[in-house]
Amino acid sequence: MNFTEFFTSFPEMSKSGLRTFKKTVDGAYRQFSREYGDSIEAVFDPVLFFLIWFEKLLQNSPWIIVIIVFLALIYFGSRSIYLTVGSFFAFIFIGYFGMWEDTMSTVSIIGVCTFLSIGFGIPIGILMSGSDRARASISPILDIMQTMPSFVYLIPVVMLLGIGKIPGLLAVVIYAIPPIIRLTDLGIREVDKEVLEAAEAFGANRSQKLFRVQLPLALPTIFAGINQTIMMALAMVVIASMIGVKGLGQPVLKAIANQYFTMGLLNGLAIVVLAIIFDRVSQSFGKRLQQHRLGSHE
Amino acid sequence: MSNIKIKIENLYKIFGPDAKGLTSAVKDGLDKDELLAKHNHVLGLDNINIDIEEQSIQVIMGLSGSGKSTLIRHINRLIEPTEGVVMVDNQDVTKLNKSELLEFRRNRTGMVFQRFGLFPHQNIVDNVQLGLSIKGVDKSESNETAMFWIDKVGLNGFEYKFPNQLSGGMQQRVGLARALANDPDILLMDEAFSALDPLIRSDMQDQLLELQKNLKKTIVFITHDLDEALKLGDRIAILNGGKLVQDGKPEDILLSPADEYVTNFVKDVNRTKVLKIKTIMKDSIQSGSDYPKVAMDSNIESCLPLFLDGESVLNVTDDEKNIVGSISREEVANILKRY
Lengths: 298, 339
Fold this sequence. Notes:
The complex is a heterodimer.
Chain A: H1 2-8, H2 15-43, H3 45-60, H4 63-78, H5 81-96, H6 100-130, H7 132-147, H8 150-161, H9 165-189, H10 193-201, H11 206-235, H12 237-241, H13 249-258, H14 261-294
Chain B: E1 4-15, H1 19-27, H2 32-39, E2 42-53, E3 57-61, H3 68-75, E4 83-88, E5 91-92, H4 98-107, E6 109-112, H5 124-128, H6 130-135, H7 139-152, H8 168-181, E7 186-190, H9 198-215, E8 218-223, H10 226-232, E9 235-240, E10 243-248, H11 250-255, H12 260-266, H13 271-274, H14 277-280, E11 293-295, H15 304-308, E12 313-317, E13 323-328, H16 329-337
Parallel strand pairs in B: 3-8, 3-9, 6-7, 7-8, 11-12
Antiparallel strand pairs in B: 1-2, 1-4, 4-5, 9-10, 12-13
């Protein structure tokens, strides 16, 4: 009898045992966050300060100047007059439908997240490319970061830091940083072995090899990673708004809760427009970089 | 003149995790195939001993997998030996520490690669001054040196092009200029001309010989092409399966191959074209100076028409047209018979 039961239902641990397990882990973590939450939060103060400064700068500057600066950046990055004109109409659309402030918040958080992802992602990628052991231990962590439902890792972040900009920022960075790490690693590993050997044969040391050969040659691949990182950060905007990040995600969230179809659609479109602009600009910038390296034009 | 520049002694290289442990088995006679089958290790070099003379061109030849590229990389220690000694000017390269090794590579050796190994993201001038900029030489000075060598290899007008805009032959000229700009006393050339088409290759060989007349570097040249080896080499070393099977002057290799492997290598070579008259002439001067004269540095082929015209003996002259020896019809016939 016992024998058939063994096969029909999985032999799970007792209900009380499971309850104690959950309670112990939760309790320990709560204890930890009570004790260290404040000091960990303090570590992020400079980031928070910068984020708020950047957001205020975008929101408080006259909108015409902001648009002019953006269009200049877009033209400089892409060298495409079509994209620049298209972006101009996109910004007009955003402003006219009352989404200017939210869009500036989103742009500021995306900007800071991208900056942080590059700042941490590229060195980690370099580390990974240098040793197979580092790669073997970092790779699974990146897999977890990309596949774990974001709501799940929001729980401990919120428990530790509460609701607000910094936990949102962390959630976005965790989700968006893997591509840049992976592609930095890949780009460096794909560098022509003979070119690297040539540098070595002429007596280049480690940092000379890195900065003269590996990074310059990996740059197009790294740029593809930056592009991916920006796209993933934008995709996280709505989820991050659930824990108090201001921006285009919040109206979307409100629209879901109250079934405001038009509001959801407009703000969703604004996110799409931002994504397209970021994507086209960073892609064509990356491509130009590559063309120059290949020397196919003077 | 006959100073030994590079002395390689009892050099072993085994690829694999337990290389050190298997060295003694290799010394006891385990060969490349057995080592791979029994221990899953690859035998790269098996007891190599070579003396390379200063200012000479030493060719190292063998088929792919014979260990020639492995051997050349031991001279600047791009590959660590399993056991053995590589002496350059009485200094053991294998014993240098990290910074001494960097200094050694920066100042003593230059290397030219089969697929060029140029930096695709830098223009020709910057490529040529790679070695100098790694050493930290002043930019204007290294620029000047680079321009000098670009001119020397005949690439004026291409200074600010990128490698991908140049043909293969031109790219390898850049590779050669890059190695020479560093003014090393040893030039390592790893199948430097193998990727080029035959006409360009022959051109580059001539250019290298021309440069060498003035530069007098010690050149180690890897190739799998016997014609190239015979054209360039003062000495030729032949590797097979990581072992050195013969090391000698080109005519020794041609006239008395050490084993079947070398015999197979040289059997299709046109000896009358390759062998110089001086290598087979007799020192005894034939009296009766009305015999036709041939220069000692020309190849045997050039005296065939005279023999076919019915001459039986020819007088051999040196550069100043003095008669220094003779060559007979029978001797030449003997050489040809060995085909």
